[in-house]
What does this fold into?
Amino acid sequence: MRVGLVYAHAGPPGRRHRPGIGTHHVARIAAELSRLGHDVRVYERHDDPDLPATTEAGGYRVVRVPVGPSGRTATRGLIPHVPAFSRWLAERWLREWRPDVVHSHFWIGGLAAASAAGRTTIPVVQTFHSLGVEQLRHLGPGYSGPGERIPLERALSRAVDVAVAQSSEEVDDLTRMGLDRTAVAVVPAGVDTERFTPDGESAPREPRRRRILSVGGLAPGHGQEDLIRAMRLVGDAELVIAGGPPRTELDGHAEARRLRELARQVGVGEQVRLVGAQPHEQMASWYRSADVVACTPRYVSAGMVPLEAMACGVPVVGYSRGGVADTVVDTVTGRLVPAGDVRGLGMTLRRLLADEAERFAYGHAAVDRVRCRYTWDRTATALERIYERVRRRGARRD
It folds into this structure.
């Protein structure tokens, strides 16, 4: 089968300090589908003139679409370039290589792919990764997405053949947007179980102090503020926050400064350490260095951080929301607390850090759960079935 993956942002995996979730996700899907014998091409925006127009990588081809400005561009700045991106795709699919199915990622990529495929009758599968309505509901006034995003996502959801959700909560949001439940399939992201494993090196730490690790971007809504406030109830433990800009740029980062000031104000300044973005290939060692990984975002469609932590044999304490609620089994692989319950979060962390036997049991169950349900080959096989279904449906229409 010929599969076109459309990712209208830019950048091959590895150019960033830690690859973005979307970049890494698309690259891994492409590699796994290629391994299954499919002819796969990834379409991304050509933002770097030093890169070639096409590249062979991991058994698939990366095709860089020459639209928009050079350099990294925020999503808001990509909106005006969607029509040109779409026209470029349609021309290539009509005249050159024509995919049997298109799988677009994020709403910008979806708009470009759906418009292009609409001229060709190619079926389209869409993964949003996050939804504007979801972010607006959880962030409220803190939501800063483009005003056009929510109505455009609603229109896009009606233009695709199947929407791929990554959590049960996302399924509910998509059906509330107007999709028929039969047009939504749940396919969680996979984990590299060869990289993320309990065996291997651990990042350095103070041996006598328990460590809580939080992984995610430094921005309102990622939950670090709740964790810092909860540390007052945890006792003698350190909170390590990995994410955001590189360590050398943290002093000039507004959210990093705010979190450090908050830690000082609540009396846990000596217990909170920001280490900045870490290379993806080193993240397993950071997970293994932790006694507990805390996942407290206000919204999360995919539970990648809890899955990576669980694959490393580390229990997770998280908010019962989105991908975290789907991946963490309460009292089996970790603990779930109601979203926003800072006191419950602090007391749960305190109790779990004090019980080594419980952490050991959760860690072992976590590894088993990931290896049985969340490997990349399972993700690719599930997507393959969806592609076959929409391709057959498209063939009947033709």
